[in-house]
Amino acid sequence: MRKFFTNLTALLVLSVLVVSLSYGQQNLTVRGTVTDAGTNETLIGVSVRVKDGTTGTSTSPDGTYTITVPGNATLVFSYIGYASQEIAVNNQTTLNVALHTSATSLEQVVVVGYGTQKRKDLTGTIASVQGEEIERFTTTNPVAALQGKVPGMTITNAGSPGSKPTVRLRGISSTKYADPLYVVDGIL
Fold this sequence. Notes:
alpha+beta; Immunoglobulin-like; 2 domains; four-stranded antiparallel β-sheet; three-stranded mixed β-sheet; 11 strands; about 15% helix
């Protein structure tokens, strides 16, 4: 009977050791920089997340990121217009990544006021005006330069110098505010 309890105790100690090794994975802070593989320029706003997890962050204006993850995690780096990359952490604390461009995915993405969507999923009309088209007009208000450039957009000038033009897209909607939402370089 004594030998039985000795074996049982050894088995329990071994079980606790195995369980603590598998579940006690040490979290570590991983830092790095994400760049464009072709130009070696840093990329701002790259999504860095744990594969099959909820932890994530994005790169700062200087292209760096910091994230705390388990040592055996896999990080997924994704950015619009670039191919996503998956990199195993393998207990490393520094991971620098160079992303390669992927023009095929860029054509199908449209930036809207509340995020990004695939063009095929949109129910409304999309119109864009390039900055070069606006620069050709001599005006004190860039909104006035949009006149005649977007289908369904009506721009009415008040007539007094320095006054703000009234912009209506496809008439007045049923909402309280009829003014459109402007998104310039991702800023509302």
